[in-house]
Amino acid sequence: MRKLILIVLAVISLQVNAQEKQDKHIKKLFQNEYVKDLLKFGTVYGAVNGGTSLSDRDVYSVIDGLETSVVETPYDYSVLFGIRKIKRYGYEPKEAFKRGTESSFSDAATIGRWTNKIEFLFQGEYKRQQGESYLDQHHFIRYVSSDGCEKGLHCNKLTKCLKHYIIKVEYLEDGFADIKYFEASERFTYVHPKYPSITFNFGAAQRLAEPYGYDPLEEWVLSNNNLHYTFLALQEGYDVVFDGDGGIEYLNPEGNSVATSTEVWEAVVIPTVIAEYAEKKRNELENTIQHSFIMGFDYYKYQKKSWLHAWGNVMPWHYDADDEFSYHKFHGGQWIDYSVGIVYGHWYNKNLGIFIEGTYNKYWNREWHGFSAGINYRVF
Predict the structure, then answer these.
(1) Residue range 103-131, pLDDT digits in tens
(2) In this structure, what are the phi and psi dihedrals at residue 177, rounded to the nearest 5 degrees?
(3) What pLDDT is stored for residue 153 in this prediction?
(4) CA–CA–CA angle 302, 303, 306 (5° rounding)
(5) Which of 69, 206, 223, 275 has the maximum number of C-beta atoms within 10 A of its C-beta?
(6) pLDDT at 154 over 50
(7) Dihedrals φ, ψ of 176, to 5°?
(8) How far apart are CA 72 and CA 92, in angstroms?
(9) Collapsing DSSP states into helix, strand and coil, what is residue 26?
(10) For residue 101, is pLDDT > 70?
(11) Pairing of strands 67-71, 132-145
């Protein structure tokens, strides 16, 4: 017993010493000048949000007499954590707290307000919306360089400079829009000395994502364009049982009855079988990398009573690696991917003002967007 007590005390002592050393290393890390400068003005935040979802819905059936069932949708909620260091634009209000429910359309802008500093956003959100659960993520690191322009590459005597550049690495996952990709871009920027509000950029972009455009149901499509859905279900483990008296029963892979009529089988079960099969086949594929030429612009002009911030990016050409699931094959050649955004506000007088904000994105065969517009009238 004495030896056991000594061993326990020794283990506790080692753990305490290890924890003290770890705390010292962490403290030393955050005292490092580079780390302090990197995190300066950054915000670490977390929030839980919730609310009522769709109301309960009555569903009626007359197959075996009148039957009533209630479809209930659980309440909506989200759990969000993040850290961000992005300089606010002049039109953005200073928030008392970061709740995660704000529409920060400007986060999608190509160029931030800071130059020669690293800006970043790391945000993850798990949410349930209208009964469906999603994991949304948005992370990026951006660096905009403007040093040494007067000593850099010049096009002519008008001192048009191309030494400015942008480097941005981004990961986006939007479960509601069914889009997930990793993107890196390296671009030169050009600002005309007479028009400093607008910046043009061009360069290369690399995207890593699942092979969008892949059709997992293609092999099951018949010559008449119908789907061999029953054979697909049988392959996935479902079974069809005939009782010999004209009755029929459909069983799932666990052997449980899921339908006793062809109508229910086709209307309820088969759509689920197809969706689960398509998701399974998509998940089996490896991500592919897409190299593209990218160009864009960013315009920002702010006054206290009027402001306009607009940006856009377009990828008109993509390298064809001739992969088995290349989007070139799905689309039949080149295609155009693009993203645009705008934040506009104007006060006509001290009472009346309007605003328009939004983003629109199209990558491959995926589109996602958000917008907000309205009018304000202040009563004094």
Answers:
(1) 688 888 888 888 778 899 999 999 888 77
(2) -90, -5
(3) 44
(4) 90
(5) 206
(6) no
(7) -70, -35
(8) 39
(9) helix
(10) no
(11) unpaired
